[in-house]
Amino acid sequence: MASKLIAIVAGVGPGTGASVARKFAATYPVVLLARKPDNYEGLAEEINKSGGKAIGISADVSDSKSLKSAVETIKKEFGEGVGAAAAIFNASGGFLRKPFLEVPEEVFSQSIDVSAKGGIYFSQATLPLLLKGVEQKSQHPPALIFTGATASVKSNAQMASFATGKWALRALSQSLAREFGPQGVHVSHAIIDGVIDIPRTREWLPQFGPEAKLSADGIANDYWWLHTQPVTNFTWEIDLRPAVEKW
Amino acid sequence: MASKLIAIVAGVGPGTGASVARKFAATYPVVLLARKPDNYEGLAEEINKSGGKAIGISADVSDSKSLKSAVETIKKEFGEGVGAAAAIFNASGGFLRKPFLEVPEEVFSQSIDVSAKGGIYFSQATLPLLLKGVEQKSQHPPALIFTGATASVKSNAQMASFATGKWALRALSQSLAREFGPQGVHVSHAIIDGVIDIPRTREWLPQFGPEAKLSADGIANDYWWLHTQPVTNFTWEIDLRPAVEKW
Amino acid sequence: MASKLIAIVAGVGPGTGASVARKFAATYPVVLLARKPDNYEGLAEEINKSGGKAIGISADVSDSKSLKSAVETIKKEFGEGVGAAAAIFNASGGFLRKPFLEVPEEVFSQSIDVSAKGGIYFSQATLPLLLKGVEQKSQHPPALIFTGATASVKSNAQMASFATGKWALRALSQSLAREFGPQGVHVSHAIIDGVIDIPRTREWLPQFGPEAKLSADGIANDYWWLHTQPVTNFTWEIDLRPAVEKW
Amino acid sequence: MASKLIAIVAGVGPGTGASVARKFAATYPVVLLARKPDNYEGLAEEINKSGGKAIGISADVSDSKSLKSAVETIKKEFGEGVGAAAAIFNASGGFLRKPFLEVPEEVFSQSIDVSAKGGIYFSQATLPLLLKGVEQKSQHPPALIFTGATASVKSNAQMASFATGKWALRALSQSLAREFGPQGVHVSHAIIDGVIDIPRTREWLPQFGPEAKLSADGIANDYWWLHTQPVTNFTWEIDLRPAVEKW
């Protein structure tokens, strides 16, 4: 029943999320989660028109009820016994580079509620579907992939709001990799170390040329590669950066 | 005006918090923060009787208003311009070793609200006092010390709730060390890697003898050592474990 | 002149080295380096018979002269201006799990001479060819890949001999990634965290089944994946382990 | 028989080594090891004149025979059954910040032979004396301390020669901490992250003032602190840097 397996992408926007959704849509029906329909409507239409299948659901990852409700919608759409081949957590929030004492409490909350709590809620919502994917003998081991950042491994001055959430998310991914790997679910974490080439960043770093930014499609290829690793060869973590990036 | 400098300890209980409070009380008036007065009343009395000065304040570190109110109380007690020589964050919560899908949402929230948000709120509340300590030329550089755990650097299976909060706290401490070190405040993080010898754990690991557990007074000595390092020689992180601990 | 680009594999044996050589031989002529001809003769024959091209050269990676001589042989075979699309360092030595005071000096030397010095000599010998590969506009960025182990990131009791060499090799790979990435060479390090399924280990871990061991062909696929990443999306490090591995 | 316990310092020069020797000489007779007598003669004289006891021995840590011979000299001087309270490895070599392909083979060898092999030989030579120190019930747990650097944890571009040796040394220290901690020997590693204030560096970083450099006496105090930690509270690793250091 491979046809029942779906892919779920949280944090769909103009960059990584959309590229990942397109990539996985070539093989699976995809569910696009974002707070605002604006962020998934065009993409869902594009995927559906080009022969794939996509549905968008408004959901706030920092609200466990919202995610539970999204799963109900998924089950209505794809059947009560639906399994997932992939669940990708690409949401983040709370980035503000400022002196610590000037960062409003809300910014910290946003980072921690989206990255830490959001990652947890998303995992609790999707892991049952991924385990169903294992039962249903998905061709590739079901994958739960988290998008990290430089700030997932390095906590620079004035970056506490973003880094606290991202470190927590990385901790989550490591614990889940250890718990769910033996159950057949492949949990991974990608450290995106650089600027992603999206419309919003197009004007950035002009002096370094087009190769100074990460390709969102390239990231999607790498996520797909993680997904296709066999159970004998699981990777928990990859880092990704432009060749010219200083690190 | 060294006499105006105080030490603030959050998360006072029967173990590390109490030992740290006693140690710093030998030099500074200490402020004891805990949610329940039970946790600081006896200790405050003990310190006051033995020639030191201690006041206890009920405060919930996961609630920024509660911490702001505690600072108001501190200023009423020690003067509007009071500086701090040390602020020690020893609170934690949300420890539950269980399959991830069986951990209630509340446990995750507790860990993240106390360790991640609590650490942030405590730092935003105390750093202004520590910076005053710098201005007032404290004998030793004012110190902001965070108590970490094995789970601050390793996120084991079934430990996601505790680890997410603790990794976030470590990220916070690293960012603050980089931002406030140049301003004269010494920010440190201690990885407590083992069982602490307190009444509650006395019966644990009997087969390994008394040396298999960390001494809370020993931890307090190490925090004091961190505090006395000069500005030319700051340590951000130490790990601490019994010699016999397997790691 | 893509036809001039070659792949060089050091440390060809029955496991990872052979699988990597076969994988890259599908696209490039491969040079097989091993101390003993026994280790490459059969493999070279197999590749040559199946339509690829392979030559074997006896070389000791811990001896810089031996590697320089190997490069001379390569140039005689493939032309003075030959470029490389990939150079893979898969050699290691000096594994002896024993109390530190009982490990003979020679074992430490073997580990350090092969893993640390060998990695350096191999890199100094092959990087000029990889940079030629960049000039010659190889389809995929030329790759320099190092095989690491659990002992590359964790130095357990009684594992000092192996770990010292492996940590040094990882340091080498990180420095080279930073220096040569901007020059177009993709330097990577793979942490192989588990037992590889080769004839010698076939009898190991029988209780865990065939999925408890890493597939050498799987590792080769992952090295190929690293090689095909575009310059916008370089990965320095991956970890690889069986899903059931405890870590 | 505390009087029989000695301290051994390898890599005595004008900076950390001398400060450490002076600090430990306040409690123990000290043995000063350096390749050139110039490096220890003045210091030995200074210590002996000021009421301590010091002997200097010419030794090359990268040569195991030289270290074995030094131990013979120590036994002749202090008795066959002499125990050690501390052994501090402060030697290093092979620092050359240059493009990798321009670094001569000898520089790599120097780094690796001194830092990696030297650390191993020094440990094999001194651990039997430290274990004797445990038997002889030294007041503080016998300590084996290694001096590391920024390059022990970060391997920057053009720093491969220094970093390979330093990462290997850190691996050694971690393995030994795990093996010998349970036997009562406290093994530690100090990451010195900054410029040390010694005559040779006095002119460096003038713009940052005297506090921009690490105090060698401060490092010595920290090593002494590590030595005095009880068996219940061992620290494996500390980092040390000036408050103003960017990291």
Brief summary of the model shown:
In chain A, 40% of the residues lie in helices and 16% in strands. With 247 residues, chain A is α/β, with parallel strands linked by helices. The first copy, chain A, is globular.
- Category from helices, strands and their pairing of chain A: alpha/beta
Radius of gyration of chain A: 17 Å
Biggest sheet strand order of chain A reads 3-2-1-4-5-6-7
The most extensive interface between chains reads:
A-B, 40 and 40 residues
Q: Biggest sheet of chain A: strands, sense, closure?
A: 7 strands, parallel
Mean pLDDT of chain A, to the nearest integer, reads 95
The CATH superfamily of chain A bears the name NAD(P)-binding Rossmann-like Domain
In the CATH hierarchy, the architecture of chain A is 3-Layer(aba) Sandwich
Q: Looking at the structure, what is the overall shape of chain A?
A: globular
Spell the H/E element sequence of chain A. EHEHEHEHEHEHE
How far is the first residue's CA from the last residue's CA of chain A?
A: 45 Å
Unreliably modeled segments of chain A: none
Assembly form of the protein: homotetramer
CATH level-3 fold name of chain A: Rossmann fold
Helix percent band of chain A: 40-55%
CATH class of chain A: Alpha Beta
Number of domains of chain A: 1
